[in-house]
Amino acid sequence: MNSDTKEDFTDSWWFLGICAAVAVILTLFAFS
């Protein structure tokens, strides 16, 4: 149970990280 919860949490962080990276890239392009 602990392992599964940790795995889901890690996946969520990966998803958030990707979304943040995309947002930053789009922002840089918008202002350049």
The percent of residues in helical segments reads: over 70%
CA-to-CA gap between the ends? Answer: 47 Å
- Poorly predicted segments: none
Structural class: mainly alpha
What integer value in Å does the Rg equal? Answer: 14 Å
Q: How would the blueprint of this fold be written?
A:
Elements: H1 2-31
Keywords: Membrane, Transmembrane, Transmembrane helix
Transmembrane segments: 12-31
Explain the overall architecture.
Keywords: Membrane, Transmembrane, Transmembrane helix. This protein is mainly α and 32 residues long. It has one domain. 94% of the residues lie in helices and 0% in strands. The chain is rod-shaped.
What key attributes describe this structure?
32 residues; rod-shaped; 1 helix; membrane; transmembrane; mainly alpha; 0% strand; transmembrane helix
Structure summarized in a few sentences:
The chain is 94% helix and 0% strand. It has 32 residues and is mostly helical.
